[in-house]
Amino acid sequence: MSLSKIFAGRKKECEVWKYFEHIASNNTSKCLVEDDKGKECGAVMSGKNPSNLKKHIQSHHAAAFRELAASEESRVAGKRKASGDDAAKPTKCGNQTIGQCLARKVVFWESTSQEHVRRQEDLVSAIVDTGYPTTMVNNAKIRAFCSSLDPKFKLPGRTCIT
Fold this sequence. Notes:
This protein is mainly alpha-helical. The chain is 46% helix and 7% strand. Strand 1 and strand 2 (28-31) form a beta hairpin. It is rod-shaped. The N and C termini lie far apart (75 Å).
């Protein structure tokens, strides 16, 4: 086996590697957890997927799994703290479901933003080119239609267009 294959891939950052040894020659991972008598588990699993290795630890070595979970949690918390990551802060959604987060109030484009100004200019151009009255922007069906096309675009009233 070539050296490039042996050293290829990302650095093994997962805490589970304290309990396993990867054997690159046959792409397997061997469990190194010792029982109370000092006997090594020695279970061999194909591949090196940390999730599969954690499952083995969880189902066969309860004490080691508790230690693994605690060390991974502290590692993740340390990374968040070190990077100043906003992920450690509560989100606006809090403990809501995804549906509740998506259903919350839609944020509109700022009236001075390029996106809003461009859409408003396109609307005025369409009204002028078609000859329709400017009062059509007050129609509930037109407002609903424009909102379905771009929920962030707040359709201006008739007085803003004239």
